[in-house]
């Protein structure tokens, strides 16, 4: 456990608006700041930073908390690791905790050390004239990579052996538990012995933006399957939240980034001078990765293979990248299946011109639709027209939508008004369906159905309402916490109906009784990120109300005790009378 005084100092020396401002672009909104949320896709900012309370909250996805919570979410780390990141940022020294463990029982730092040792071993094998001859011929001969590029990306080779890496790592003092946790080895079900997962493969180290080797990818040297083997998620690595070569590309991508499909495409582009290229790690792009792009650049040019699978993947990538507000374009490589082959055939200058001539997302999707339908045939033309109109109907900007209408009418050779009317009809239908869904979601939200943070809230709606009011006021106002702890206010954990409410109440009281008193920063040790977001939500809502005085607090306590005492037997009108004061102030803002 990190001492309380050090945690307080870390939070004090890391202004939340400065820290968050290093991840997203904040804009002043009165006394607060706003930005598009970095944790979910949106165009209209719903993410707010509150300097006065040193907290943040997204009114769209419910993420919230303090500067520690923000780093936990952004860097995908646990509470202690987030504190260490902030401590390094502020130049604060934290006592080393040798007993700190990740979920697997292996410290994340230890996995970094393991991966570094493994990368050195793979590199030695590649440069060994006997062991690495075939792999070096593949990289240097067939793929035409120079030695500088091979060394720059730390490429290596895993021998065609079941125990080469296992024996080397254990000789360096790494345990079997650590090798399994790092996805470098696996235990045989037959013999019970460890064996290497990467065998006879060219190795691609995956490096995070802090310079840590977090995982590996491996391409097999023979025709066995799978062709590519990528690390599974480990305590040090989540593949959906990393991009290959981002550690290099982030220094060259202010204006645009290139998204490729594979490791070799990225390496070939970097070698040709396009150092803003990255790739996903053996999977289709995720929403988390789309938000990573939005942190570093304004425009993304998708450069996927020209086959059907590559084009379908490009469509998904365009949607996810567009949702986070990026300018998305697609490159068309005539005469080559991928950028590596194209550069070998036509050169880097020609590829650069292809980048400049890349198509907008609309042009790409429209070409794709037209390629699937023969518009010289009436039925096919009608189908293509419907798909194009449906696509245009999703565009929110009126001017942009009208430009697309005119372009589609020209290509389809039909009157502009016909396309415009069809787009309007489809758009109205989609808006109607959206409103119905919103109404249904709002109804479910009112009844607390589907609440995964407080699973009891749907069963005890009125009691939960009282609990949230009480807890929010206890978090905001010292006098209510002090009154509860000293006995001046008669309220105990037994008065709470929901398990979540009881847990929060007990934590607030425990922290208030501790030597340092209550601190928002300490909540991250006790609650999950989703729970912290819920606490921030009820506090933000409470601060917006005009009345938070002792009369309101007492009325909430009284109503909660009544609900606890009588439960489901309390009649609606009787209960309404008991909690009227606790709810009346919610309608006055």
Summarize the entry for a quick read:
The chain is of the alpha+beta class.
Approximate shape = globular
Question: Could you name the CATH topology of the largest domain?
Answer: DNA primase DNAg catalytic core, N-terminal domain
Mean pLDDT: 87
Instruction: Compute the number of strand runs.
Output: 16
Q: What is the number of domains?
A: 5
The spatial strand order of the largest sheet comes to 1-2-3-4-5
Helix content range:
40-55%
Q: What does this protein look like?
A:
- It is a single chain.
- The protein has 589 residues and is an alpha+beta fold.
- The chain has 5 domains: 87 residues, DNA Primase, Chain A (Alpha-Beta Complex), CATH 3.90.580.10; 127 residues, DNA primase, catalytic core, N-terminal domain (DNA primase DNAg catalytic core, N-terminal domain), CATH 3.90.980; 110 residues, 3-Layer(aba) Sandwich (Dna Topoisomerase Vi A Subunit, Chain: A, domain 2); 63 residues, no CATH class; 127 residues, DNAb Helicase, Chain A.
- The protein contains 25 helices and 16 strands.
- The strands form 4 sheets. Strands 1-2-3-4-5 form a 5-stranded antiparallel sheet.
- Strand 1 and strand 2 form a beta hairpin.
- Helix 16 packs antiparallel against helix 17 and helix 20 crosses helix 23.
Write the layout of secondary structure elements.
Elements: H1 4-12, H2 16-21, E1 27-29, E2 32-35, E3 47-50, E4 55-58, E5 64-65, H3 67-75, H4 79-90, H5 108-127, H6 133-142, H7 147-152, E6 156-158, H8 164-171, H9 176-181, E7 185-187, E8 194-196, E9 201-207, E10 213-220, E11 228-230, H10 246-249, E12 257-260, H11 263-271, E13 277-279, H12 287-296, E14 299-303, H13 308-323, E15 327-330, H14 339-346, H15 348-356, E16 359-360, H16 361-372, H17 378-393, H18 398-412, H19 416-446, H20 461-476, H21 478-486, H22 499-513, H23 529-543, H24 550-566, H25 572-584
Parallel strand pairs: 12-13, 12-14, 14-15
Antiparallel strand pairs: 1-2, 2-3, 3-4, 4-5, 6-9, 7-8, 9-10, 10-11, 15-16
Helix pairs in contact: 3-4, 12-13, 14-15, 16-17, 17-18, 17-19, 18-19, 20-21, 20-22, 20-23, 20-24, 20-25, 21-22, 24-25
């Amino acid at each position: 456990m990190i001492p309380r005084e050090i945690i307080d100092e870390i939070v004090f020396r890391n202004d939340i608006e400065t820290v968050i401002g290093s991840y997203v672009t904040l804009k002043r909104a009165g006394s607060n700041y706003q930005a598009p949320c970095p944790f979910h896709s949106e165009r209209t900012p719903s993410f707010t930073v509150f300097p006065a309370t040193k907290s943040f909250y997204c009114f769209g996805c419910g993420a919230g908390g303090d500067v520690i919570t923000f780093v936990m979410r952004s860097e995908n780390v646990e509470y202690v690791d987030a504190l260490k990141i902030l401590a390094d940022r502020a130049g604060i020294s934290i006592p080393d905790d040798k007993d700190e463990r990740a979920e697997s029982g292996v410290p994340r730092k230890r996995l970094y050390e393991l991966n570094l040792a493994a990368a050195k071993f793979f590199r030695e094998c590649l440069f060994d004239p006997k062991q690495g001859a075939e792999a070096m011929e593949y990289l240097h001969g067939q793929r035409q990579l120079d030695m500088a590029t091979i060394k720059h990306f730390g490429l290596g080779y895993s021998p065609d052996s079941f125990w080469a890496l296992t024996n080397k790592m254990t000789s360096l003092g790494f345990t079997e538990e650590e090798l399994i946790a790092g996805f470098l080895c696996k235990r045989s079900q037959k013999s019970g012995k460890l064996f290497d997962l990467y065998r006879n493969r060219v190795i691609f180290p995956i490096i995070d933006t802090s310079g840590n080797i977090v995982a590996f990818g491996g391409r097999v040297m023979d025709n066995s399957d799978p062709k590519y083997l990528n690390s599974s998620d480990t305590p040090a690595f989540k593949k959906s939240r990393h991009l290959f070569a981002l550690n290099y590309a982030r220094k060259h991508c202010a204006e645009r980034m290139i998204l490729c499909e594979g490791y070799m495409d990225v390496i070939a582009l970097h070698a040709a001078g396009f150092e803003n290229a990255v790739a996903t790690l053996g999977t289709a792009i995720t929403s988390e990765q789309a938000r990573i792009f939005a942190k570093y650049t304004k425009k993304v040019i998708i450069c996927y293979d020209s086959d059907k699978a590559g084009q379908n993947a490009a469509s998904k990538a365009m949607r996810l990248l567009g949702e986070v507000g990026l300018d998305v374009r697609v490159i068309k490589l005539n005469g080559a299946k991928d950028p590596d082959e194209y550069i070998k055939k036509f050169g880097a200058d020609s590829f650069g011109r292809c980048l400049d001539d890349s198509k907008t997302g609309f042009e790409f999707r429209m070409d794709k639709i037209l390629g699937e339908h023969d518009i010289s045939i009436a039925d096919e033309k009608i189908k293509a027209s419907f798909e194009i109109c449906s696509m245009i109907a999703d565009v929110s900007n009126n001017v942009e939508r009208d430009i697309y209408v005119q372009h589609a009418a020209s290509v389809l050779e039909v009157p502009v008004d016909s396309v415009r009317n069809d787009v309007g009809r489809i758009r109205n239908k989609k808006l109607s369906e959206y409103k119905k869904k919103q109404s249904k979601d709002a109804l479910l939200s009112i009844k607390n159905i589907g609440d995964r943070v407080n699973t009891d809230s749907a069963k005890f709606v009125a009691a939960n309402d009282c609990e949230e009011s009480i807890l929010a006021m206890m978090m905001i106002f010292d006098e209510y916490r002090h009154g509860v702890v000293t006995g001046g206010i008669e309220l105990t954990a037994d008065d709470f109906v929901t398990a979540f409410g009881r847990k929060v109440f007990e934590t607030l009281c425990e922290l208030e009784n501790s030597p340092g008193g209550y601190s928002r920063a300490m909540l991250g040790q006790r609650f999950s990120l989703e729970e912290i977001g819920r606490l921030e939500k009820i506090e933000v809502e409470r601060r917006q109300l005009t009345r938070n005085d002792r009369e309101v607090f007492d009325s909430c306590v009284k109503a909660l005790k009544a609900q606890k005492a009588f439960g489901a037997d309390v009649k609606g009108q009787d209960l309404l009378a008991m909690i009227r004061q606790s709810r009346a102030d919610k309608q006055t803002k």
